[in-house]
Amino acid sequence: MTTDRRTEIVLPGVVAPDGLQVRTSPIPTPGTGQVVIRMEATGVSFAEQQMRRGRYYDQPPFPFVPGYDLVGVVQAAGPGTDPVLLGQRVAALTKVGGWASHVVVEAADVLPVPAGLDPAAAETVVVNGITAWQMLHRKARVRAGQTVLVHGANGGVGTTLAQLARLAGAQVIGTASPRHHDRLRELGITPIDYHADVPAAVRKIAPGGVDAVFDHLGARSVSDSWRLLAPGGTLVAYGSASTRDDTGPKQLPVLRILARVWTWNALPNGRRGYFYNIWAGRPLAKQRFRARLRDDLSQVLEAMAQGHLTAQIAARFPLARAADALRLAESGTVTGKVILTP
C-alpha cells in the first residue's frame, strides 16, 4: 500500500463476500471542519452482514464502502479544525466508509483514544461499546444486584454488554453455542445454550424473572424475552439477526418489533420495552447527540484503559482480505469482533 493512495473495499451490490471489490484512489483532502484519519483498525459488525444482503434498514444505495467505525491517526486536518488533532489517535463512528486506509470524517465526530490502548482493542468497543453502554445505562438503567439476560453473549456487542453489566454489579445470563461457554464463564457470565429451551433455562436461574433483557434476534425472540421480565423490568431490542437471510421489505422486521414494543408499553404492566437505534436523535439535535456519544464512548474506553473491560478480538485480517473477514464473522463460530487492519 503506497502512502499517496487510498485503498477502499467497495460493496457493489447484493453479493457474496467474494464479490467485494478493492478500489484505489488519491488520498482525499479534508474540507472545512474535516479530518483525514489514517485507519489503524476497523471492524466487521452485524450491520455489514445485513448490508451485503441489502437488508440493513437505512443503508445507502449501492455501490458504497462499508465500515461502521474505525480507530486511527489524524493525518490531515482541514480549515476550522483544532490543529492539536494532527497526529492524535482517535475513534470515529461512521456507519459506512470505515473499510478504507484513509477516511474523511467531521472533526466534531472524533474522540481521542486513551494512550496505551491497542488500536484493534479500542476498535472492538466503538460501535459495540456505545451500543452496549447506552442500552445498559440510558435505557435499562441496570443497577448492582440485578439480573440481566444477554442474547448472543459471544458476539461483538454481547461480550461488551455482558462485561459492562458485570462491571455495574449485575448477574449476567448469556445465550451462546456451547463452544463459547467456557469463555463466557471466564468473563463471569452464566451461559445457556441458545439451541435449548431458553425461557425454561432462564427461569431455573431466575425464577422471578430478570430485570433486563437485551435481544438482537427479532420479533419472535422479543416476545419470549418480554415474558421473562420481572415486574419493573426492561426489554431492549436492537436488531433482527434471525431475519438476516430473509427476503421482502427490509424495514418489516424492525416494524414488527416496534409494533410489539408500542403495544406492550401501552399496557399497565409495570414493564418497559425499547427498540434501540444508535442514531436516534441525531437529525433533530446533532450537538446533543454528539455530546452524548462522546460521554458514553469515553467511559467505555476509560474502562478498557483501566483494565475493567477486556477486548474480545475474534481475528485480525488485512483490509485486502475483507472477504475472508466477513465470511468468518458471518459463520457464528467466533467470540468477539473480527478486525480489519491496513
Give a short overview.
This protein has 342 residues and is α/β, with parallel strands linked by helices. It is built from 10 helices and 15 strands. The protein has helices spanning 46-51, 119-123, 127-139, 156-167, 181-186, 198-205, 219-227, 252-265, 286-305, 322-331, and strands at residues 5-10, 21-26, 34-44, 69-77, 89-93, 102-106, 110-112, 147-150, 171-176, 190-193, 210-215, 229-237, 272-275, 313-318, 337-341.
- What count of helical segments does DSSP give? 10
The share of residues in helices is 25-40%
Number of strands: 15
Spans of at least 5 consecutive residues whose pLDDT stays below 50 are: none
Radius of gyration from CA coordinates: 20 Å
Mean pLDDT, to the nearest integer, reads 95
Question: How big a fraction of the residues is strand?
Answer: 25-35%
Shape: globular
**Strand pairing plus helix content: what structural class?**
alpha/beta
Cα distance spanning the termini: 8 Å
Q: Mind describing the biggest β-sheet? A: 7 strands, mixed
| SSE succession | EEEHEEEEHHEHEHEHEHEHEHEHE
SSE arrangement:
Layout: E1 5-10, E2 21-26, E3 34-44, H1 46-51, E4 69-77, E5 89-93, E6 102-106, E7 110-112, H2 119-123, H3 127-139, E8 147-150, H4 156-167, E9 171-176, H5 181-186, E10 190-193, H6 198-205, E11 210-215, H7 219-227, E12 229-237, H8 252-265, E13 272-275, H9 286-305, E14 313-318, H10 322-331, E15 337-341
Parallel strand pairs: 8-9, 8-11, 9-10, 11-12, 12-13, 14-15
Antiparallel strand pairs: 1-2, 3-4, 3-6, 3-15, 4-5, 5-7
Helix pairs in contact: 3-4, 3-9
